[in-house]
Amino acid sequence: MDMLVVISSEAPKKRKIYHKMGCIYAERIKxxxxxxxxxxxxxxxxxxxxxxxxxxxxxxxxxxxQILSWTHKKEMEFKFDDHTETLYIKTKIxxxxxxxxxxxxxxLLYHRNTFDANTDYQELIRGEFHRQKDVKQTDxxxxxxxxxxxxxxxxxxxxxxxxxxxxxxxxxxxxxxQAERKVKREAVKRMDTLFxxxxxxNPSLKNVSIYERSSVC
Length: 217
Fold this sequence. Notes:
The protein is elongated. It has helices at residues 39-44, 55-62, 64-73, 121-126, 141-161, 170-201, 210-216; strands at residues 4-8, 17-20, 34-38, 48-49, 77-81, 86-90, 95-101, 106-112, 129-131. A hairpin with a 4-residue loop joins strand 7 (95-101) and strand 8. The strands form 2 sheets. Strands 5-6-7-8-9 form a 5-stranded antiparallel sheet. A 4-stranded mixed sheet has the order 3-1-2-4. It is built from 7 helices and 9 strands; from the N terminus they run E-E-E-H-E-H-H-E-E-E-E-H-E-H-H-H. It has 3 domains: 4-53, no CATH class; 58-160, no CATH class; 170-216. 41% of the residues lie in helices and 20% in strands.
């Protein structure tokens, strides 16, 4: 992990604790004693994680101001489930969940398979989710929220016209190709649905070739 944490160079052996950036206890460390080091280094030196800012619950605590900003600027709703220690994020067009995988100490991002903005929160939580595989395991809550925001903005563009998606970076080009393939698959499905409807109305069309069918439409 490359995450930076805060320690006190004057901490006694029995109180060697490291804190995440933004932790209220990190702010209490005197400037001359405050050090910022990688979490791996802190653990090697015998520092233990702060109970207040540890884990996803701690990230939610230390990012209170930022979450409030995201709520207004990005029009997101955040809900932390104390029982499952899972963070749920609702946007205009999607529903997401983030949880900390203990054995790797990193966050995983999941996206709900279906979404209706009018669905009750409890029902949304109980729905089926899929792992967002193009998102790497990370220790950064900020990166995941930024991904969700970019993903949903791109989805809105796709619903209008995927050709308007940016294609400057390698990742953007890859996403554009994915959107293009998806639109083509959906077009084929719509065509199949249309043919099925026509065949129910006129069974003789089942014997018409694909080229002849095109002229029917």
